[in-house]
């Protein structure tokens, strides 16, 4: 049995009450802590208290905080663009200070490894300090900037040009910052092979890359297919923002008009502080599709339990947490080939279509709807099997633990 590690955890601290990146961070943190590893979580605090619910109660976990003064509903956070800029700057300042705290504590009582969750920029020199730095980013800002620019014609339908231009500049500046920091990690961990390859290509990163898929709680038995009830439901659960394939979903709603009495396309989600494509939804075919807006996570999961398939047509999507959630509850996924988890989807539990190809998306949807009519239980069992095999939480924590132990020994990770 290997000795427990002393870990400095930076970046996203995780939350027991959140979905998304915070939710998967919490699952990994909780799993490592339960195995006896001593973890100092360096995180933003407010009034000396961690803002992420659940972490303070975990065994073997200590919080090292830096108070933030950033708040909602101030002059600098009124409006989505101001909030995006001011919160980004505040986070960079806090992360720089927390990095200094890591090195100060490391000098007093050495850490075995630093694990940085979600964020790619590293504000201390892990290699120079002889302290292994494992970075697990959840996006690539250079790719975000690429798609924001490539889709400027779409953005102009819903956003003013000055706003689009300002966001474009900020994304490009942050991408340059990430490029400068690309030499700092000892090891880069990404949620898919596609992601690791693209990150190394965008930033010429020389550190080894390892795949660690997003953990997803998966039941021990496949869920039953819901009884037939009206039209078959296709779900699109996403931010209505750049590179998410919103325009493909709008187009699909018109292509499926002949199935208007058999299929309902439901769009769920809000938008980011820096990209708002909800204006594109005015062109949805109302006979087939409807926009349900944002929903609490339990309500989203209720929709997944009743749906026939989840659509993930993103042009760039490293990990797609929604894909994992869908597969785990037995919901087949129709994903673009650019989506990271498309690497694990087979015809037994979904379909993969050619990135950006509207005709390929339509063909995949019609093919899966036909199979779902004939063999609904088989598809749901296939989706669940993929999640159980590839994404279940203990499996992912096992792999993360092995990755961190290899990094602490300054040895390459062996798959």
Structural class by sheet pairing and helices? alpha/beta
The best one-word shape is globular
Estimate the strand proportion: 15-25%
Round the mean pLDDT to the nearest integer and report it: 91
Number of helices: 12
Q: What is the rounded Rg?
A: 22 Å
Considering DSSP H and I runs of 4 or more, what fraction of the residues is helical? 25-40%
> Got a strand count?
14
Give me the strand/helix succession. EHEEEHEEHHHEHEEHEEHEHEEHHH
Architecture blueprint of SSEs:
Elements: E1 6-11, H1 20-34, E2 38-46, E3 49-50, E4 61-67, H2 80-108, E5 113-118, E6 133-137, H3 141-150, H4 152-155, H5 161-180, E7 187-190, H6 193-203, E8 209-211, E9 232-237, H7 246-255, E10 263-268, E11 289-293, H8 297-306, E12 309-312, H9 321-328, E13 333-336, E14 350-353, H10 358-374, H11 376-390, H12 393-408
Parallel strand pairs: 1-2, 1-5, 2-4, 5-6, 6-7, 7-8, 9-10, 9-12, 10-11, 12-13, 13-14
Antiparallel strand pairs: 2-3
